[in-house]
Design goal:
By secondary structure, this protein is an alpha/beta fold. It has 5 helices and 12 strands. The strands form 2 sheets. Strands 3-2-1-10-11-12 form a 6-stranded mixed β-sheet, with helices on one face. A 6-stranded mixed β-sheet has the order 4-5-6-7-9-8, with helices on one face. Helix 1 (26-34) runs parallel beside helix 2 and helix 4 (141-153) runs parallel beside helix 5.
């Protein structure tokens, strides 16, 4: 299984933003990254696709432009809702990108892929009416129960994707970028014995950690800095090879 991973495009009509974010360059950077996925099975976009600024075009227009580029790739692609993407209602976002739901799963020959939605500030309100706070994110109970079933019923190894990470280089940390109720979900991963790796975005510098035998990879943002950052990942039976570009290192897991 081979896929192209991109995250945190933050696409908008803003030349340079906070933290050296090149918002307006993200669409061209995405086009460049797509040149590397000719033999990929799919593309995964891990969220924060477009930003909502008063001086920029409407966020829906920006998201539609990203979708058009992904459509033109001719490859299957999968999206995750990021915290900035909640400026529009989640149901509208996942309808635009033809997602099954805010969280979902699909199978490849080698793996079951599980996509989680951690972009909610209240476990009792998973579809917020306005953009969420970026540093107070959770996995809700309905989704946790669904995850348990997905892992129980899979006869394959599992790779998980989520916008907000569960851990950075260390598991025990109070970093604000992390899912608040991460421990209970990580315990579900570990008890299943099936999760090989978890890939995330949100933390723009990117990082790697390992806990309970599971690899946790956070990809660097595509829009930050002068380099275009993306990864081509090959997941085989016994190893996962990450070919990183820009600010994303290469790893063999």
């Amino acid at each position: 299984m081979k896929f192209l991973a991109v995250t945190d495009l933050h696409y908008a009509d803003k030349a340079l933003g906070e933290g050296d974010r090149h918002h307006s360059q993200s669409l061209e950077r995405l086009k460049e990254a797509l040149k590397y996925c000719d033999d990929c099975d799919f593309i995964i976009n891990l969220g924060d696709t477009a930003d909502s600024f008063s001086e920029s075009r409407d966020q829906r227009t920006l998201l539609s432009e990203v979708k058009a580029v992904l459509d033109a790739s001719g490859k299957p692609y999968y999206n995750i809702i990021g915290n900035h993407d909640t400026s529009i209602v989640k149901t509208e976002f996942y309808t635009l990108f033809n997602m099954k739901n805010r969280y979902y799963a699909f199978d490849t020959t080698e793996y079951r892929i599980i996509v989680l939605d951690a972009c909610l500030n209240d476990v009792n309100d998973p579809i917020p009416k306005e953009e969420i706070i970026w540093d107070d994110c959770y996995i809700d109970g309905e989704q946790k129960n669904w995850l348990v079933t997905q892992l129980r019923d899979s006869d394959k190894k599992v790779i998980v994707f989520t916008h907000v990470p569960f851990m950075l280089s260390e598991r025990e940390t109070d970093d604000p970028h992390l899912i608040k109720n991460r421990d209970e979900i990580m315990d579900v991963f570990e008890k299943s014995g099936k999760v090989s790796a978890v890939f995330s975005g949100h933390y723009h510098s990117g990082t790697y950690g390992k806990s309970g035998g599971i690899h946790y990879v956070t990809f660097a943002s595509m829009c930050v800095g002068d380099k275009n950052s993306f990864a081509v990942v090959e997941a085989g039976e016994n190893s996962i090879v990450i070919n990183g570009f820009g600010n994303i290192p290469s790893y063999t897991l």
